[in-house]
Amino acid sequence: MGAVMELSLQNQWIDDVVVIRCEGRIAVGAEIKSLQAEFEKLTELTKKMVLNLGEVSFLDSVGLGALVRQFGRLRSEGGDLKLCQVSPFLQQVLKVTNLLRIFAIYGSEAEAIKAFSKGPEFREDTFLTSRARIVCIDPSNDLLAYLSALLKGSGYEAITTRNPSDALLLVRVTRPQVLICGPGIQTNESAMKAFTEIIPKLQLLHIPSDFSTGEAGQAGIDLVNRVRSLLPSQQ
């Protein structure tokens, strides 16, 4: 028997805004697939979404990446994703990962819905000055979205790709200080060998296998600390 999904979703329309109420865990696996399916279905109907996270008990790195990706998609299409009733736990996750710079957060659904009438908020480009260039590679779009937002929020220039040959080209062309390899690429022995040979002084950072499923805030703090330890001259 498969694992029981620990995320329930309900949506309600208020004019052209859809409110999605989440209860449970937003985590890699069935929960993320369910949320992404809901996003896909609703994005065809509206570009204005409010995510009520008041009953969310856990958010992992891939889950947060999924929210970042949906935010980016809606913004690119002239819409927005607003968060409301965010618990103190999730507020802290967004704070320590510097993602409060991206998301607009409201105390209630009504406040979030009303905010759409004020027009778009300029938030996503309020990042810090870049300290160093970092290339990230992993097959997961959601993980890459999380890494990109996390690193940019911490003051780094982040370039992401899912493709090993593209990663090699990016490393050659952009000359990053660090190459971050996600769990999904580390089993590709030929790619990993090529990465170590292309630039001898390139710092390779391997993300642990439990990064995707760990609590997003702590996972993010640990990763940024590892990056900083590799780039002492950038501090």
Notes on the protein architecture:
The protein is of the alpha/beta class and 235 residues long. The chain has two domains: 7-118, Transcription Regulator spoIIAA (2-Layer Sandwich); 133-234, Response regulator (Rossmann fold, 3-Layer(aba) Sandwich), CATH 3.40.50.2300. The chain has eight helices and nine strands. The protein has helices spanning 30-43, 61-76, 88-96, 109-115, 141-153, 164-174, 189-198, 216-230, and strands spanning 7-14, 17-26, 48-59, 80-84, 104-106, 133-137, 157-161, 178-181, 203-206. The strands form two sheets. Strands 1-2-3-4-5 form a five-stranded mixed sheet, with helices on both faces. It has a four-stranded parallel sheet with strand order 7-6-8-9, sandwiched between helices. Strand 6 (133-137), helix 5 (141-153) and strand 7 form a beta-alpha-beta unit. Helix 2 packs across helix 5 (141-153), helix 2 packs across helix 8 and helix 3 runs parallel beside helix 8 (216-230). The longest helix is centred in the first third of the chain and has 16 residues, at 61-76. The model has no long low-confidence stretch (mean pLDDT 90).
User: What proportion of the residues form beta strands (DSSP E)?
Assistant: 15-25%
Distance between the termini: 50 Å
Strand order of the largest sheet: 1-2-3-4-5
Tell me the number of strands: 9
CATH topology term of the largest domain: Transcription Regulator spoIIAA
- Count of helices? 8
* Number of individual domains: 2
Rg value: 18 Å
Given helix and strand content, the structural type is alpha/beta
Which percent range fits the helix content?
A: 40-55%
Briefly, what CATH class of the largest domain? Answer: Alpha Beta
The coarse silhouette is: elongated
Largest β-sheet summary:
5 strands, mixed
